[in-house]
Amino acid sequence: MAFSVEDKRVIKSLRQNKRYGAKQLLKIFPNKGWTLEGLKKLIHKIDATGSFAHQPGSSESSTNSVH
Predict the structure, then answer these.
(1) Region class of 45: left (phi > 0), else alpha (psi between -120 and 50), else beta
(2) pLDDT number for residue 57
(3) Rounded to two decimals, what is the model's pTM?
């Protein structure tokens, strides 16, 4: 299941303020349908960039643009 924008905001806040990891987040939100690998990837992105938004020029954002 994909993360909603609100989910990403909550995850980012808990990661940056309380340093929660993927397993802790799965325990807190068991009904969200998140996967451990998905959370790990999102947390890695948050740690690396401080954001969960797509970076300019990334392949994902360029494939979704309308020409």
Answers:
(1) alpha
(2) 76
(3) 0.77
Domain that residue 36 falls in: 5-51
Residues, the chain: 67
Question: What are the angstrom distances between the C-alpha of 15 and each of 20, 43, 65?
Answer: 5, 7, 30
pLDDT, average across residues 1-26: 95
Alpha helices, H only, the chain: 5-18, 22-28, 36-49, 59-63
Distance CA 19, CA 39 (A): 13
Instruction: Give domain status of residue 23, yes or no.
Output: yes
Paired tokens of 18: 């309380």
Return the half-sphere exposure (C-beta side, CA atoms, 13 A cut-off) of residue 30. 1
What percentage of residues in the chain have a pLDDT greater than 90?
70
| Average pLDDT rounded to a whole number, residues 12-17 | 96
Residue 10 belongs to some domain of the structure = yes
